[in-house]
Amino acid sequence: MANKILTQLVVIVVSFFGLWFLLSQIEYIGEGDMHRFAKESEKKLSEMILESITNTHDEIENEKVKAILDSIKVRLCETKKLDCDKIKIHLVRSSEINAFALPDHHMVIYTGLLEYAKNAEEVAGVMAHEIGHMEKNHVMKKLVKEIGMEMLFTIAAGDAGNDISRETAKVLSSTAFDRKHEREADAFAVETLANADIDPQHLSNFFFRLARKDNLPEELAWISTHPDTKERSAEIIKQKKEYTYTSKPILVTPWESIQQLLVNTDDEDVDEIEEVVADAIDSTEVE
Amino acid sequence: MAEVVVFPYRPDDYESEKASNSYLMSLIAVIAGLPLPIINLLATGFFWLSNRKGTFFVRWHCMQALLSQVFVLMMNSAGFYWTLSIIFGDNEVSNTYIAYLITIFIFNVGEFIMTIYAAVNTRKGQHVYFWFFGPLTDQICKP
């Protein structure tokens, strides 16, 4: 009798897990939809969103500042063997302290963030975090969850109005990722920074300084989209202990000189500015 | 999955009704128990407790109904807490999750049909013997 019971139990358990396994081979949602959303559509979608951002904010074409951001990007990408060229950085004039990733590996950085950062390492930390969101495909997952696949197809096809594109941009710039995604991007950033010999402590410091603000002004957009900042700051410090690195500065020139470039974009003191930038870029190339 | 077999004696009408009610109890509880799977088990458990001094036929069917509910409870509880972790936690809706929901739905429907079959036939005084739960009840419930 005991054998009969055991045999029948095994049959039930095997049937249950077997049926579950077979059914889970069918793609109901998620990755299938992601693949369906072809690269070309993703590109068009990012173009539409970028257009709606640049309609309301000026995109800064200051080659010198962009060169510095690009050099930080290269330093981060090279260590993780990422394709640097596919990541496109857009510097946008806004007092908001914000940076966010768009589909098709576009990254938008507001000048407010560069002005708030105390050094290039903090900016590198934020950039590494956003690259983490790109590499883990969090951007598309977030859009699918918040907006829906059908609407994304409509936007990419150019059939949606400007309002919808603007709303989509708002979702990416002002709503948070899932906590799980934020922690994944943090972990990615810590690893990338450590591999690039940049102390992840700077990213932690940046988080902590933002978290210390009791009354959040509207400009502090990045913290509103990145919740649990204090806990994550502590987690970054914990994670960085897992890596060995020699901290090397990104720029030899003071960060304030770079910030000046954002303010002083006229042709005044051009020689002096170019000298500062040339030094800064040279130093990053040496690293 | 469920068959009618010969019982050691012929139960009277009162016993048949009581035994049939043990299955009906789990069916009625399904309505209230859909969001909280524990309610099914509690209802069947209370019915078994109130009849544990009943005749062998009644006790046997109460126990079989209870055991089948324990199985359903385990399946549904896992689905229930998985759903909660998606709504309130960090988990995401995935293909594995949807497959699990479909699987427990199929097993629930199977169990539901078996329970109706048992309720109807037990009411007629027939001894309905579930696959796996029948032999298990034989081991637990003695005359």
Can you tell me about this structure?
The complex is a heterodimer of chains A (287) and B (143). Chain A is mainly alpha-helical and 287 residues long. Chain A has 2 domains: 1-36; 39-286, no CATH class. In chain A, 65% of the residues lie in helices and 5% in strands. Chain A has helices at 2-23, 31-36, 39-56, 63-80, 111-116, 120-135, 138-146, 149-156, 162-174, 179-195, 201-212, 221-224, 229-240, 255-263, 270-286, and strands at residues 88-92, 99-102, 106-110. In chain A, a hairpin with a 3-residue loop joins β2 and β3. In chain A, α6 (120-135) crosses α10, α6 (120-135) packs across α11 (201-212) and α10 packs parallel to α13 (229-240). With 143 residues, chain B is mainly α. In chain B, α1 packs parallel to α3 and α3 (56-88) packs across α5. The radius of gyration of chain B is 16 Å and the shape is elongated. The two termini of chain B are 24 Å apart. The model of chain B has no long low-confidence stretch (mean pLDDT 83). Chain B: It is found in: Membrane.
